[in-house]
Design a protein that fits this description.
The complex is a heterodimer of chains A (495) and B (475).
Chain A (H helix, E strand, L loop, with lengths): L6 H9 L5 H19 L2 E4 L1 H16 L10 E5 L26 H8 L3 E6 L33 H8 L5 E6 L5 H7 L2 E4 L19 E6 L2 H11 L29 E5 L9 H16 L3 E5 L7 H16 L18 H12 L2 H14 L5 H21 L5 E5 L15 H6 L5 H6 L2 E10 L3 E9 L4 H14 L8 H7 L6
Parallel strand pairs in A: 2-3, 2-4, 7-8, 7-9
Antiparallel strand pairs in A: 1-3, 4-6, 5-6, 5-10, 9-11, 10-11
Helix pairs in contact in A: 2-3, 2-16, 5-6, 7-15, 9-11, 9-12
Chain B lengths: L3 E12 L38 H13 L3 E2 L2 E2 L2 E4 L9 E4 L6 E2 L2 E6 L2 E14 L3 E4 L4 E4 L6 E7 L6 H17 L12 E11 L9 E6 L2 H20 L7 E6 L4 E7 L9 E2 L6 E2 L2 H9 L5 H12 L3 H8 L2 H13 L3 H19 L10 H12 L5 H14 L3 H7 L8 H14 L1 H8 L4 H13 L6 H12 L2
Parallel strand pairs in B: 13-14
Antiparallel strand pairs in B: 1-11, 1-12, 2-6, 3-17, 4-5, 4-16, 6-8, 7-8, 8-11, 9-10, 12-13, 14-15
Helix pairs in contact in B: 2-3, 5-6, 5-7, 7-8, 7-9, 9-10, 12-14, 12-15, 13-14, 14-15
Amino acid sequence: MLNTLTIHEILEHLNRGECCSVDVVRSVLDAIHRTDDRIHGYLTLDESDALEQARAADVARGNGVKGRLLGVPIAVKDVLNVKGQPCTCGSKILKGYVSPYDATAIARLRAEGAVFVGRTNMDEFAMGSTTENSAYGITRNPWNLECVPGGSSGGSAAVVAANECVAALGSDTGGSVRQPASFCGCVGLKPTYGRISRYGLTAYASSLDQIGPMTKDVRDTALLLQIMAGVDAADSTTLSVSVPDYQASLTKDLRGVTVGLPKEYFVGGLDPEVERCVQEAIEVCRQLGAKVVEVSLPHTRVAVDTYYIIAPAEASANLSRFDGVRYGYRAAGALDPLDLYKKTRAEGFGPEVKRRIILGTYVLSSGYYDAFYLRAQKVRTLIRRDFEEAFKHCSVILSPVAPTPAYRIGENCADPLQMYLGDVFTVPVNLAGICGLSVPCGMASGKLPVGLQVMGPALGEEAILRTGFAFEQATHWRAQRSGIATENAGSQVQL
Amino acid sequence: MTTFRVTIGLEVHVQLKTKSKMFCACSTDFGASPNTHVCPVCMGYPGSLPVMNREAIRWTVISGLMLGCRINSFSKFDRKNYFYPDMPKNYQITQCDKPLCLGGGVDIEVGGNARRIGITRIHQEEDVAKNMHYTTWSGIDYNRAGVPLMEIVSEPDMESPDEALAYLQTLRQILVYAEVSDCNMEEGNMRCDVNISLRPEGQSTFGTKVEIKNMNSFKGIYNALHYEIERQREVIEGGGKIIQETRRWDVDKGQTFSMRTKEDAHDYRYFPEPDLMPIALPEALVAEWAAALPLLPAQRREKFVREFGLPEYDAQVLAAEKAVGDYFEDAARCSRNPKAVSNWVMTDVLRTLTEKGISISAFAIKPAALAELVDLTDAKVINSNTARDVFAIMLERGGLAKDIVAARGLAQVSDAGAIEAVVDQIIAENSKSVEDFRNGKAAAMKFLVGQVMRLSKGKANPQMAGALLEKKLSN
């Protein structure tokens, strides 16, 4: 079925006239009907609009219009603004809100003919690692319905892994693209800070947020990055550096590549099966011609602490705008403006969001600012320097994405601190503003995927995509399918 | 009775007259229907991001240069967090510890006493929306939200309401001169918060200060300060203590009322705005802007005296408004008699502006044309009465003075023969006045000259007519 294919495979079929976009979108919608009541990867779906977009793409193709994504369905995390579609960010406080504009990344994909099929579930305002913090119900992992898909872009990862879409977009503030990609066995990229415009991405932590593709293979990730990347006048933090040809960097060997292994990442606390998978992956890279060296990232142990000061601080301001005055949820029966804010926010936000707003408000408070926020910013600089130093000795750094494979639903809910520690390998990349890729690299017992993280320096996307691609082509992990995905591959249409 | 010393500091918010808002492309025009100049950015919609208006930055720096400030080569924006319905994001993008401008001052003169009032800093920020309250509901107009503001913070250097007023008037004149703002208080382009404290004469430390908000005219500020001085004096003399608080000026009651005390002061939780890059202002760029600054009003007055030989009074009138000064300067450069140009601008031109309710940019007679009219009078081609008529025609129908004089034959007659014929006729027709003059009534001569002018339709050279009359009647 068409929904099981990658973007580049679908484009080949479309370009040869073997199918049309409506066929592709129908196959995706069929899969969603078949399995999404079990996965709950989607929050909203506008089927007639999706088919309308597909028909328009088919007409355009008939008229000779070219587009690098013409007629390809893409699922969008519910944190990105798509004009005319809901954007709840997994929160009750944005219930009923409809975006008045397209995010820049969305506009660029739209200009290439992408079809936006639906909105995927997420932890409320991207705060969480399991998608259990959504106000609209949990999402389940297509590999094991008792397990979480990871988060916060759990819905996007799950729909890709379930063949309920061809590709998806997520956002990554501390690992929210890479970790669910790892848990669900798909490819996920956190680009360099400033590589993709954040305009239209509802902010969690502005200095850490990046939009990232979530796909079935590295080639698709390279294509989506290619289209979305580049300077944007609407986002002053985008980098005005030309966008290289990422697809051209995809080669099947790793000759000339030096792989760094941070000694601080391979210590206690790592799940043995994750460690085994990652070690095997390193061996594969060596066989592909890479030189392997040890590097040091000495401030790794304080990265999570630093992240949980900076991210909530920025979030406490970013989320202030949700007050019931202009849009979204408004509590009934307020007596005055202050009462309106209190009631609306008390009723509209979930517990994890409230926890981080309070944390962020505290660390910015008069008398605490220097000890927390200011110090965290200084540590952040040290973490960035760690990477700068390490990248003097290697071209990419390999590590696990998460210390464990997907865990069971409800397992970590009671202990936020334990949950935060699961971010240890992903948050340094955001704090340093560099790029990181998650590629499937093995299976833990119980048929749960494990991801390999390939980290690169700022604007080092070519190197990490090349490494990820060579690894992916040399291994069979990409061909592994979740049970749900196989179900959605069901009656194969011969093409 | 104890003598108190008054200490006043002012925080002045000035809207810059940029075409677009501080962080988005929406129009800044005043008076549009509510919520028509809005977009996702200035409404604080999820996912929207601010983009700096470079023109606003330039104008704030120019204001700083006009006020003698140092310009920070590295400046940045911060978020100031507080909840209020006029705040779209519930934080304001402003500048905390790295403002664009530092230091500087304004020279004022009160009762012949010249003083310099120090400026602490000038920073850039965005305006908030406007709340409007009706009987059972309130509305918010976001048109104003995001309009570029600069906040000019003075040192606590003023010692009386008169000094505060002089500071504000001088500041306004300078900013209008810099063409960065209209400083129109009615339209809210210029708003002011004051800090005021009293201390007994001889005490070296400041008294407890009180902040007053909500004053929308210079008069309001002046009255509020007078009221507050009396209120604080009574409290202190009555053995009470001034508490640090924010008070609101009620213009109808003519009193200040407590809004909030220090205890409920906000913790604004400032932190650097992550959505904007820091502002780098290279020295060369600032130097380039500095080189193109207009003169300060005081510098211009001095220039008018020095270059055009005007009396101090004329210079002050002409330099009060930059555009009027520009007009005068352009006209004076085209004329042989700058003082005569000054007379014309100060009287006929300014009067016409007031009568028509227009600004000088809309004045029909261009500076060169006025200069020509002045020079025709100066060269005695026309006399001053004819000049006023020509001025009226130019105003009404346009055209050049020379052409109007030629077309209407208004040139003064200085041919002695022609004037003599008229003089003879007047002497013949006015025997009573001739007799009066001969009997020593000087006023009769004035009448006779007037008759000559009437008969000559105003064209006779009045000096020549007078001389001829005298010569003939003294024979």
